[in-house]
TrEMBL record:
<dbReference type="InterPro" id="IPR028082">
    <property type="entry name" value="Peripla_BP_I"/>
</dbReference>
<keyword id="KW-0732">Signal</keyword>
<dbReference type="InterPro" id="IPR028081">
    <property type="entry name" value="Leu-bd"/>
</dbReference>
<dbReference type="Pfam" id="PF13458">
    <property type="entry name" value="Peripla_BP_6"/>
</dbReference>
<comment type="similarity">
    <text>Belongs to the leucine-binding protein family.</text>
</comment>
<protein>
    <submittedName>
        <fullName>ABC transporter substrate-binding protein</fullName>
    </submittedName>
</protein>
<feature type="domain" description="Leucine-binding protein">
    <location>
        <begin position="50"/>
        <end position="173"/>
    </location>
</feature>
Amino acid sequence: MAPQYPFPFRDGPGPDLESRTLIPAHHPGRRHPWQPRWPVLPRHLPELAGGQKLLGVVSFVNDIHTLGLDTAQGLLMTESFYWDLNDHSRAFTERILPKAPDNYSNQCQAGAYSAALHYLKALGEVGLERAKASDRKIVELMKRMLTDDDAFGPGSIRADGRKLHDVHLFEVKKPEESRGPWDYLKLARTTPAAGAFRPLAEGGCPLVKARRPGSAAALSH
């Protein structure tokens, strides 16, 4: 079963690898979440012995390209988008590569494409003049419309603006597993959109509170 929010870590991520013990020797086999500071990573990876796993909480395929598989192999990392995940992600990458040769997209770059595409779809529904007259109209429509594109597949936008889609856990391949340039990740598991993000009710978003029935903002519209 894929893990779902909330994701319990017995050790919270530290500010960097220098600020705390990386791998406690008396805890073999544990996974150690960490928000990466890539310049200090290579000299610590050799310390991973005895089955420990390093988890890059915010990591990108471009980082693996910089480090190389010899250094990064075995690293666990989360990504919402990976270019070789499925036929749709590969089709997206084939369209983008001619415009950015030898620079494969990560989830942030693919996210920029996805957001722009969804906005343009909503703009087509609302019309340019209505969109100019009221930004709110197009934002509200973007939240009502389901999202779907080659980068992330089907998804949605919640009332608080949170984009919901599946999130994936990958493991960095060993050098001998790679079939060629940028073939760096293998899928470990997928957490469906419904369990991948903090629930709306726990977010405390002022926008959502203002839109609840009976609120002053809701009554004024």
